Amino acid sequence: MSQTVPQADPRRWKALGFIALAQLMVVLDATIVNIALPSAQRSLGFSDTNRQWVITAYALAFGGLLLFGGRISDLWGRRRTFMTGLIGFALASALGGAAQSTGMLIGARALQGLFGALLAPAALSLLTVMFSEAKERAKAFGIYGAVAGGGGAIGLILGGVLTEYLNWRWTFLINVPFAIVAVTGAILVIREPEGTRNRNRLDIPGVLLVSTGLVSLVYGFTKASEDGWTSGVTLGLFAAAVVLLASFVFVESRVSAPLLPLRVVLDRNRGGAYLSLGLAVIGMFGLFLFLTYYMQNVLGYSPVMTGVAFLPMVAGMITGSTQIGTRLMNRVPARALMGPGFLVASMGMLILTQIKVDSSYWLMLPGLILMGLGMGTAFMPAMSLATFRVRPQDAGVASAMVNTSQQVGGAIGTAALSTVATSASNAFAKSHPINPKSPAQLQMLVHAETAVHGFATAIWFSFGILLAAAVVATALLNGGGKANLVAAKGEDGEVADIPVMAH
After folding, report:
1. Could you give the residue ranges of the DSSP H alpha helices within 166-267?
2. CATH code 1.20.1250.20 for 12-202+259-485
3. Cβ-based neighbour number of residue 430 at 10 Å
4. Could you list the residue ranges that cross the membrane (predicted)?
5. Which of 125, 228, 399, 464 lies 20 to 30 Å (CA to CA) from residue 388?
């Protein structure tokens, strides 16, 4: 049966604005709360262990349930799932802003993750099915990629401003007006094309296996940063993750209506995009985390100044995504954008390994700009390749895989690189013992040098991980470019990434 491409929705560009706003809200939340945590901790009086849970509860719920959210949007309707996710996210944010206890705050973060897992894949899959013309799709993905890539850094700025001038609670409450605007837009302008839903039943065993498997994996890395890599709990969680995820793959290869059809990830372009993007995010999250601590604790920047210091990186991301990626996406293969993009980002990371206790901002500036330019250039074709030649009925779950690779990558990056930094700092402290009789100023200097040595070591690891992302993208990807303009139909019924309007 031949597939015809539906006429483009005249309100699609307005819809893109509201979809991008919703995506910004979700991405912001990954970093905005980090800046506010010290103030929240003082206000509610929770321990350092519980502080970690404020971050982890969100990552576990979000990362663990994304594939479920993606399939729900395919089955139930992307617009309906999008609106449900927005309303739930706003209510969970209001609960977090009103939190009177640690448990209430952690519960609100878990609910944010749950509704974010509905919202994020629905947003990307709406773009996938609403923009059908090649150049328009490239532009739409450029804007979306800039938001997805730069949102974390914007979160650092906004978190700093809200915490310093209002109150830590506003880092939660700010989501409510965002959600109201996005829901209003969804009601007025977002229309989902007909015939793109998946009418199959939900694969409950698949949902349970992949959700518990991903939660075990993310929690395993979190426990590794707390208890060490060889502790019984850490090893048990990693073993459980391997067994559960292997069982998930086995089940998906057998059931008639799988949660994640294996064709979605076994395609070399989509699989390569998910893997290289996940690796890049591991490296990038490490950078955010360590530079934030470095700027505030060593250089003495305020929360607002820390956020402003990241602005050149955001500008680089927007430039790379909308000016380089969008213009070249339909002209050159994706590997020619993603490989060099991750390589340029790694060069920025290489500059940032040189930080010292007394480094000036001018040392960091070129590193931040290169990071932004490289990641922005690579992010946009990665977002597009994630749904390359995918069946419309699988758009939600293919989109969810992008978010899963980002969320799981972010959680792994934060936990694993924290462990690297702590180990390096401890080794440095042993080889540079402090004489208790030394002047206080000298003792403070050695403490600062110890911390910076740990940060720089972790950034070296991030540099290596970004190089690996460049290698994976170059080796695996062979799609994109002019292939985007061909409405070829595969033998398995999949359709081209960017269909051409039927003549």
Report:
1. 170-173, 175-189, 204-227, 232-252, 262-266
2. yes
3. 9
4. 15-37, 52-69, 81-99, 111-131, 143-162, 168-190, 202-222, 228-251, 272-295, 301-320, 332-355, 361-382, 451-477
5. 464
Q: What is the mean pLDDT of residues 137-165?
A: 75
Kindly list the distances between the CA atom of residue 417 and the CA atoms of 42, 270, 458, in Å, as whole numbers in the listed order: 26, 27, 6
Q: Identify the bridge partners of residue 98 per DSSP, sorted by sequence position.
A: none
**What confidence score (pLDDT) does residue 7 get?**
60
> What confidence tens digit (pLDDT) does each residue in 157-170 have?
777 788 778 888 88
Helix (H) or strand (E) holding 277: helix 268-293
**Cβ(462)–Cβ(286) below 8 Å:** yes
Single out the residue of 464, 422, 457 nearest to residue 283, CA to CA.
464
Q: CA separation (Å) from 217 to 92, 184, 475, 482?
A: 25, 37, 26, 38
Q: Per the structure block, which two tokens stand in for 304?
A: 């607002």
Decide: 454 and 428 in contact? Cβ < 8 Å. yes
Instruction: Decide: pTM greater than 0.70.
Output: yes
Name, in order, each residue with C-beta under 8 angstroms of 388's C-beta and a sequence gap of 6 or more: 267, 269, 270, 273, 479, 480, 497
Residues 6+ apart with CB under 8 A from 289: 34, 413, 414, 417, 418
Model pLDDT for residues 64-85, shown as the tens digit of each residue: 788 788 778 877 888 888 899 9
- Burial category of 317 from C-beta neighbours within 10 Å (exposed 0-12, middle 13-18, buried 19 and up): buried
Residue 253 CB neighbours (<10 A)? 10
Q: Render pLDDT for 346-382 as a digit per residue (tens, 0 to 9).
A: 999 999 988 888 888 998 999 999 998 998 888 777 7
The beta strands (E) that lie in 61-171 are given as none
Q: Bigger pLDDT: 53 or 501?
A: 53
Tokens of 105: 């705050």
